[in-house]
TrEMBL record:
GO molecular function: alkaline phosphatase activity; metal ion binding
Organism: Halanaerobium saccharolyticum subsp. saccharolyticum DSM 6643
Cofactor(s) this protein requires: Mg(2+); Zn(2+)
EC numbers: 3.1.3.1
PANTHER family tied to this protein: ALKALINE PHOSPHATASE
Descriptive protein name: Alkaline phosphatase
Keyword entries, A-Z: Hydrolase, Magnesium, Metal-binding, Phosphoprotein, Signal, Zinc
Signal peptide, first to last residue: 1-28
Family under the similarity heading: Belongs to the alkaline phosphatase family.
Lineage: Bacteria, Bacillati, Bacillota, Clostridia, Halanaerobiales
Class in the EC hierarchy, top level: hydrolase
Amino acid sequence: MFKKSKKLMLVASLFLVFALIFTAAAQAEVKNVILLIGDGLGIGQIDMTRYLAGDKDHELELMKLPETGIMMTSSTEGVTDSAAAGTAMATGHKVYNGAIAMNKNGAELDSVLDFAQVRNKATGVISTNTVTDATPAAFIASVEDRGMGGEIAKQAINNGVDVMLGGGREDFMEEEAGENLIAKAKENGYQYVSDKTQLEKVIAMDGKLLGLFNDSYMNYVNDRDDVGSNEPSMEAMTKKALEVLSEDEDGFFLMAEGARIDHASHAADIPGVVAETLDFDASVRAAMDFAEENGDTLVIVTADHETLGFSVSEPINKEALMNIDVSPEYMAAQMTAKENGNGFTVESVKSVFEEYANISLSDTEVASFNEKVVDEEGNLKYTYLVGWEIGSVIAQEYQAGVLSSRIRANSSTGGHTLNSVPVFAYGEGAEAFNGMMQNTEFSDLLFDSMRP
């Protein structure tokens, strides 16, 4: 009787072991991977958005994902730029700042998107910057310098990335790429769209879609009405990409980047960070809706690095900041340059700050501002750099927690920090993203998620 009981216990134990193995194997199979990267989106940007858009206890959609981790963000040079950060996350290798999926010896590094293609999965990238900019580029190309937009676009088309949505039309033109890549894409079976209206009409067929909605980076969310933009939101691009990519029976890999969170952060543009992060967060909700409805999907939300050391300071003037409804870059474009080009007229500087930010500047403050918006040769800086200085004045006036203009000016990355960033995950295998990790270890987990 005792031996029989032992046999029954052994059989039951073996059955349990095999059941656990089978269950683990089933859980390990991930058909679809959706990676959402908020460029520059640190904890400070998240807290700033949830507080200014809600209240002290408000939660964003990304905060509701069940698994959480923390990722360190360095490159081989220390504080990373987006190229090296994207490369670490996409390939599992730390590289020098500026490198796109290529090491210092010129060797190309395979990305997780490349691996997805080997696994016969459909692939896609989205960016509210250009689709050839640093973060998406690290997944779709290998070049020695992030500024090689035409070459990045050429590699993306030649490599057959199925869906590409964002800005960067000029990088697909003959002047930058050496050939008309939009025409080539059409010949290769891509549907091509150039505005929000056309994107809405796209029918998921043939599996290839190229959407280029601006010659350069896409407009800030807060500026789109003022500039008459017909660009889609990140949420709309994400939904359409999921619709197209999910037609593939083998599954897909999608990287979607909220790129202009970083740009707004560089400019200390508090309301801009809020608007861009909310658009990104709506995309997270779209990804979660897809995952919850379809299953077999892993959703990961994170950042490549943090920008400008954002924090919700106690005396921050929430109401004043949220009454600002255009970007500092837009404000910069409304100023009138002096005839000698050495700064802007006092009247136009005062008028712009008063009209758009409800700030009254003294003549001394205008003079200080003008000193910061000219280069060493006495010429006006690019409009976006003028916007950085406008944003810093506004942030200081309304006591927002960001790094100073001086620290940013002394930074080779324009204000990036070594701050670690959060990782949120949902779905099959999401628990692997718990805990502390290097950005290269994050990449290892992405690769592992698609291994059989």
